[in-house]
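Hi C.,

You asked whether I'd gotten around to modeling the 104-residue construct. I have! Everything is below, sequence then structure, no commentary in between.
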Amino acid sequence: MAFSYTILALEYIFNVPVEIAVLGNPEAEETRKLLRVVYQRFLPNKALVAVTPPVDQAMGEAVPLLAGKSLEGEKATAFVCRDYACRTPVTEPRDLERLLASPS
C-alpha cells in the first residue's frame, strides 16, 4: 500500500496540478458529457469545480478558479488551468479531451 502512495506522491511532484472548472446546468446532457470526460481520465492531481451559472462576484472570491468565468454562447463550458493560467474555454467534449491530454 505504501508503494501506491509513493507513486501518487511522485505523480503530484513531477506533474503540474490541473484545475478544471465546468459551468453548466447539472441536469443538461452537454454538462454531463463534459464531466464524463474529466471523470474518465486518470488525473490524480486535479481540482474540479462544477457549478450552475451565473458565477457571481462572491462565488469568484470564495473559489478563485471561478473568478471571471462565464458560459460560452449559452453552452456548458469547461476551463482547464495549469500554473494559474487558463486555456481557451471549450464547449465540446473532444476539445476538453485534447486539453486534458496536453501536458501544458
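If it helps when you're writing up: The chain has one domain: 16-101.

Thanks,
B.
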